[in-house]
Design a protein that fits this description.
This protein is an alpha/beta fold and 137 residues long. It has one domain: 2-Layer Sandwich (Nucleotidyltransferase, domain 5), CATH 3.30.420.130. Helices cover 27% and strands 26% of the residues. It is built from 5 helices and 6 strands. The chain has a 6-stranded mixed beta sheet with strand order 3-2-1-4-5-6, sandwiched between helices. Strand 2 and strand 3 form a beta hairpin. Helix 3 packs parallel to helix 4. The radius of gyration is 13 Å and the shape is globular.
């Protein structure tokens, strides 16, 4: 397993990790990463095992009433890592409360985002790196 998988998060600890990425349109490996966590169309839930993609599962983002709803839905699916372009305070705090790591700086397709994570090219989300462009997110 590449050493940067361990640096990226739980993949090095568990052997298998579920990673979620917000998507434009239907979630699959070639879907574009949505720049809006809470306003994306769907989430791709990618299961990584030993640094390789084992499975991909879509999760719709329709009909949530608050910022915590999609976070809880992802947690219920076993997601341990969220890869985003950016994120607002409310979902970030909910992820933090649930013990789900958030990393930012991914772009392109879902496959590109996973590759960036595995290469150690994503960054841990902190209070200082939050997006302030969506006050309700």
């Amino acid at each position: 397993m590449p050493e940067d998988v361990e640096e990226g998060g739980e993949a090095g600890d568990m052997g298998e990790t579920k990673v979620a990425i917000p998507c434009i349109g239907e979630a699959h490996l070639q879907a574009l990463v949505s720049p809006h966590f809470g306003r994306c169309d769907s989430y791709a839930i990618v299961t990584l095992e030993q640094g390789k993609i084992k499975a991909t599962e879509p999760l719709s983002n329709s009909g949530h009433s608050d910022c915590a709803s999609p976070v809880q839905a992802l947690a219920d699916k076993g997601v341990r890592l969220m890869l985003v372009t950016g994120m607002g305070l409310r979902p970030y705090l909910t992820f933090k409360q649930l013990g789900i790591e958030v990393r930012y700086g991914v772009r392109g397709t879902v496959a590109d985002a996973i590759e960036s994570y595995l290469k150690g090219e994503s960054f841990p989300m902190t209070d200082d790196s939050l997006c302030n462009c969506h006050p309700n997110e």
